[in-house]
Design goal:
6 helices; TRAP transporter small permease protein; cell inner membrane; mainly alpha; membrane; transport; elongated
Length: 181
């Protein structure tokens, strides 16, 4: 890859990344659903003086969920944040070492997040004596969105840990192949 080609996001590198990219693109349609129900709320509230009790929490849950899933999507499509000023100015081999460092740091970070997420999920899904009882919002509608969102966070950081591991393996294999040539 040439320096000028690094600004273009790469296609997913493995089957997991391809699945994440496809599922995320389909799920992104929920942004349109959020706009529709928000419009419905505005019309209900200000035209008919009949506000809903469910739109705000539903829109917040959908937006939060899509934001969480966006991390796995960004990693799958190589659209995560990087300092391109440095990355674009170094050789391909140095980029590979930077990528390896990135994947190792990502493994460490997502591993720590898994530990924190497990604590958060278990507290929101189970009572202190171990019964299943999902945490709810505490509003008049009282959906279990807080527990569901925390579960999604836990699932997504586990998924990202696997992604980082697969990307690290791929990067090391590419580096070995180039050194053996």
């Amino acid at each position: 890859m040439k320096n000028s080609d690094t600004n273009v996001a790469e296609m997913p590198k493995n089957t997991l990344d391809k699945v994440i990219a496809r599922v995320s693109e389909v799920l992104s349609l929920f942004f349109a659903f959020t706009v529709i129900i928000s419009f419905y709320e505005v019309v209900s509230r200000y035209v008919f003086d009949s506000p809903t009790i469910w739109v705000h929490e539903t829109a917040s849950f959908i937006g939060g969920s899509l934001f969480v899933i966006g991390g796995a999507y960004a990693l799958a499509t190589d659209k995560h944040v990087r300092v391109v000023l440095i990355y674009d100015s170094v050789s391909q081999k140095t980029r590979q070492y930077l990528n390896i460092f990135h994947h190792l740091a990502g493994l460490l970070f997502s591993g720590l997040l898994i530990f924190a997420a497990w604590q958060m999920v278990s507290n929101s899904w189970f009572t202190p004596w171990g019964e299943l009882r999902l945490e709810t919002s505490g509003t008049a509608w009282d959906p279990a969105f807080p527990a569901l969102l925390k579960g999604l966070i836990g699932f997504t950081v586990c998924l990202m840990f696997i992604q980082f591991a697969l990307h690290l393996i791929n990067e090391i294999q590419q580096l070995k192949e180039e050194n053996n040539v």
